[in-house]
Every structure is written in structure tokens, then in C-alpha cells.
Amino acid sequence: MRFLAISGSLRRVSTNTALLRAMASAAPDGIAVEFYDGLGELPIFNPDREGELTPQPVLDLAAKVRAADGLIISCPEYAHGIPGGLKNLLDWLVSRQEIPHKPVMLLRASSRNDISHAALQEVLRTMSVALMQETGIAVHLLGRKPDEIERILIAPEMRSSLSTALIAFANGMEEPG
């Protein structure tokens, strides 16, 4: 199984990115997690630039989404909403063939982003993804110092939880219907 991890944060020291990278490093044998790092390179969505005019960074993203068995998304909440960069990425994918029915797991690096989490779920449902809510996890990292975040994410029990979540995601995709 190959999953594509997408962080909704462009911050250099992002808790969401740290959580995704920790999940990738905890992946058990048979599961690979690739981190998408092109969020900041995507041009602002413009429907006039779809089809033959689609920018190369968008085509690169679409190829990664197509090649992935599923997506793992983690994003912060900005002003009770989805961060603009992640929403822009989703806007580029909304009318493409790579995204419908793609399994998606959501991670949360804060237990306080309920409003944006609900908004992201609504956008993803509108895009007809296979949102696998039962596999997502939340780890409260908000407001913690980088060394504390690292200690939390490398702890054996956390690595086990992240690995278990990946296995549940993979197994959920294999279950009929």
C-alpha cells in the first residue's frame, strides 16, 4: 500500500507536518507513506487554467494522487476554516478524475480544531472521496515546544498508535463496500 500524506500547513515547524512525518516513520512493512511537499508551489486555482492549460505543479500533484492508494491529510485551523493552501489544493483536484472514491484518512495535531475539521470533511464529502473517519486520530501538539513534540511523536506507544492507524486504514480499504 502507498499513501500520500498532505499537510495543510506551510509552516517550517508545523505540528501537522511533524505528525504526518511521524506516521510515515512508523509505517509497518508493506505500507509506504510519501510526503507531498508541493503545497506552496501550487498556483491559485483558476478554472480557466484546467484541461490543456493545467499548470505543471497541478499535473504533478494529480499524478501523485493517482499513484496513491489513499490520502492522509492533516491540517490546522485558521480563523475557524481550512487553510487557504490546502483549500487551493483541493480546488485543483475537485473536477479531476484522480480524487473521487479515493480513500482518505484525517489526522489532527490539535483537539481544538473542530470547526475546520468539520469543514474539511464537508469539502471532502462533496468531492466524493471515501472518507474513512474511523481510522483518523488526534494528537494534541498545539502549543508545545519542538523538543516536547518530538518526544511525544517518538514515544513507543505513539509510534504503535500511528502504525495501528495505518494498518486500520489499509484494512478498511480492503473491506468490501
Tell me about this structure.
By secondary structure, the protein is an alpha/beta fold. The mean pLDDT is 94. It is globular and about 50 Å long. The protein has a single domain (2-174), classed as Rossmann fold (3-Layer(aba) Sandwich). The chain has helices at residues 15-25, 56-67, 84-93, 114-126, 146-154, 156-174; strands spanning 2-7, 32-36, 70-74, 103-108, 130-131, 137-138. It has 6 helices and 6 strands. Helix 3 (84-93) links the parallel strand 3 and strand 4 (103-108). The longest helix has 19 residues, at 156-174. It starts with a strand and ends with a helix. Strands 1, 2, 3, 4, 5 and 6 form a 6-stranded parallel sheet that branches.
Radius of gyration: 16 Å
Task: Tell me the β content.
Answer: 5-15%
Mean pLDDT comes to 94
CATH H level: which superfamily? Flavodoxin domain
List strands and helices in order, with pairings.
Elements: E1 2-7, H1 15-25, E2 32-36, H2 56-67, E3 70-74, H3 84-93, E4 103-108, H4 114-126, E5 130-131, E6 137-138, H5 146-154, H6 156-174
Parallel strand pairs: 1-2, 1-3, 3-4, 4-5, 4-6
What keyword list fits this structure?
single chain; 177 residues; alpha/beta; Rossmann fold; 6-stranded parallel beta sheet; 6 helices; 6 strands; 42% helix; 15% strand; globular
